[in-house]
Amino acid sequence: MELLTAIYNAIMAFTNMVWSLPLLILLIGGGLWITFTCDFVQIKHFGYMMKYTFGSMTNKGTEGQISPIQAMFATLANTIGTGNIIGVGSAIAIGGPGAIFWMWIIGFAAMALKYAEAVLGVATRTRDKDGNWKGGAPTYLAKAWKPLAIGWSASCIFALPIACGTHVGAIVDSAQTFGIPRHCLHSAFYHHHVFCTARRYARFGQGD
Please, what is the Cα angle at 76 between 173 and 72, to 5 degrees? Predict the structure, then answer.
């Protein structure tokens, strides 16, 4: 019990340290640095991004495992969560309307961070023995410094059940208002999370 208490206190101390000035420096400072070094990519190439995100998302002839519209749905599902909805409302309720301004500032800088993350993922991806692409944060972090990739992967193992539980719980609570049994929804969603691949998620989002 004492060990669990010590671990909890260490995690809370780290959380309180990060979610303050260091986080602002990492998000805003890092985002602005990438913005300047990439020549304001989120402004100069905004039209290009919209053209090749929405303009070609129905193109079935595009080379790849999934279509552009499926890639968009998969990306949105991976990016938008309860924090984007509940977090915004909580920030306004606690910090007032001025919180919106700072969310805009951080969002502008974070666009450059997301761009850099996507470029690294594409630049360092490799094909497996079956010819499928393999890449992302574990790949480019391992090429930079392997302990970073191990730490990131270990963090995802602990975060995934919590994140899935939060989203599933919110959906189940909402669906219960229509008289749908709670245990049936939990079983269905956890089965979907465990047994669906990324390609099936993308097709599910498209409605195929």
Answer: 140
106, 23 contact by CB (below 8 A)? no
pTM of the complete model:
0.69
Contact of 168 with 189, CB cutoff 8 Å: yes
The neighbouring-strand residues paired with 127 are: 133
What span, in angstroms and rounded, lies between the C-alpha atoms of 136 and 161? Answer: 20
Per-residue model confidence as pLDDT tens digits over 169-194: 777 777 777 777 777 776 776 666 66
- Alpha carbon distance 144, 163 (integer Å): 27
Single-letter amino acid, residue 164: C
What is the four-CA torsion angle of 142, 147, 150, 153, rounded to 10 degrees? -80
Q: Which residues of 116-127 are buried (b: 16+ CB within 10 A; e: fewer)?
A: beeebeeebeee
Does residue 62 contact residue 56 with C-beta atoms inside 8 Å? yes
